[in-house]
Hints:
This protein is an all-alpha fold. It has a single domain (3-215), classed as Four Helix Bundle (Hemerythrin (Met), subunit A). It has 8 helices and no strands. It has helices at 3-27, 33-56, 58-65, 75-101, 108-131, 159-174, 180-205, 209-215. Helix 4 (75-101) packs antiparallel against helix 7 (180-205), helix 5 (108-131) runs antiparallel to helix 6 and helix 6 (159-174) runs antiparallel to helix 7 (180-205). The chain is globular and about 55 Å long.
Amino acid sequence: MNDITHRALLGLIRFQIVLALLLFLPAWSLHFWQAWIYWSLFFLCTLFITLYLLKHDPGLIARRLKVGPGAESEKTQKIIQALTAGLVCIMFIVPGFDHRLHWSTVPTFSVVMADALVLAGFLIIFRVFQENSYAASTIQVEAHQPVISTGPYRYVRHPMYAGAVLLFLATPVALGSWWTLLVALVLVGVIVVRLLEEEKYLAKHLPGYDTYCQKVWYRLIPYVW
């Protein structure tokens, strides 16, 4: 097992352990079926994507391993990444308290549909990874990096954020918590700020990005914005 494979799989296992703790400790119970389905779905999707990239694009895995506020070069992005990480943790913690204290009543059908949307979000992110080997976790431009305008990039300029937004908005319902939608909405707002800052950076450092923006008008949602 090479270093990248070891780090990627170890990071995946650590994340899943942390995710389980964030979900089940606030609930103070393992009788939380919504969390079990979500945790299993999250694990299977991330494991599939990780194994696929380790085989077909280990370079992208290496780029994705550089993550977090400390990996960013711009001060603004360091702050945005820190806020994002904090909000993601809160988004996973609140449903446990909601389940324990019975704040929300989410119908089973809604939970199942939300899980389907979580899967759709992962599929969009997977397609982005297939199309764009430069989709790093940090905002950067490498030497000779091309502008990607194929696949999902034909429809929106930031399809990975589109997949993430769908995943984040579906997560509260998938975990049976209406109240957590408030956290998810704030998280989406932070993502939009990051997206706008990223566009400024790419326009300045990535040749041809301005031309691409003139061809693909929509940033996040086709025909909307």
